[in-house]
Amino acid sequence: MRKLRCARCPRLVALRRRLKRQYPDYHNAPVPAAGPRDAELLIVGLAPGLHGANRSGRPFEGDSSGDLLFAALNDAAARLRNDGLQPPRWRITNAVKCLPPENRPRAAEIANCRPHLVREIGELPAPGAILALGRVAHEAVLAAMKLNGSEYPFAHGARYDPAPGIGLFASYHCSRYNQNTGRIDKKALTAVIEAAMRYQP
Ligand code: URA
């Protein structure tokens, strides 16, 4: 896989360099979006996980966040098929493409990565849906779309119509922490994904 190069965030570049020595077999580079560019559902996470996307090079692949996300995506798609509907194709990306220390990107790092998210949102066809996983991803999507946060507050299960033919859905992030604290589970995540998959303007 050809690796992306970016040196916009010194803190994230320094972490990548350190991790290359510690985990030479890991991807340790910006993690691009995965899935067809013209997919009708764009899922936006926070940032690569250390032993998940930062290892595999694909968003959400290889950690417990991804295990829950992919299980819920498959369940939601099966529910649509049961109703005779064709589920949308999905594309998965992150608000920040590089692993941040302690999974906490800084505001400047989110802003540095914004042009990628702007492009990915621009590639979403209409009708199409965006699903933001967690508050940081939700706010990154709002900033990328130049939307006012007070008009589109983050809430699990929220659904907005921020642009013609574009639905915006929000869920708690499927992180291991949120799973362990009971904030999110497969049923709750599947319900939001199913609503996003059934989006109609
Ligand atoms: N893996 C990702 O790619 N993104 C997240 O937000 C969490 C884990």
Describe this structure in words.
By secondary structure, this protein is α/β, with parallel strands linked by helices. The protein has a single domain (10-197), classed as Uracil-DNA Glycosylase, subunit E, CATH 3.40.470. It contains seven helices and five strands. The protein has helices at residues 10-22, 53-56, 64-82, 107-123, 135-144, 176-180, 186-197, and strands at residues 41-45, 90-94, 128-133, 159-163, 166-171. It has a five-stranded mixed β-sheet, sandwiched between helices. A hairpin with a 2-residue loop joins strand 4 and strand 5. It is globular. The termini are far apart. The model has no long low-confidence stretch (mean pLDDT 97). The chain binds uracil. The site of uracil has 13 residues, from helix 3.
Short recap of the structure:
The protein has 201 residues and is of the alpha/beta class. Helix content is 40%, strand content 13%.
Features:
201 residues, single chain, 40% helix, binds uracil, alpha/beta, Uracil-DNA Glycosylase, subunit E, five-stranded mixed beta sheet
List the helices and strands and how they pair.
Layout: H1 10-22, E1 41-45, H2 53-56, H3 64-82, E2 90-94, H4 107-123, E3 128-133, H5 135-144, E4 159-163, E5 166-171, H6 176-180, H7 186-197
Bound molecules: uracil (URA).
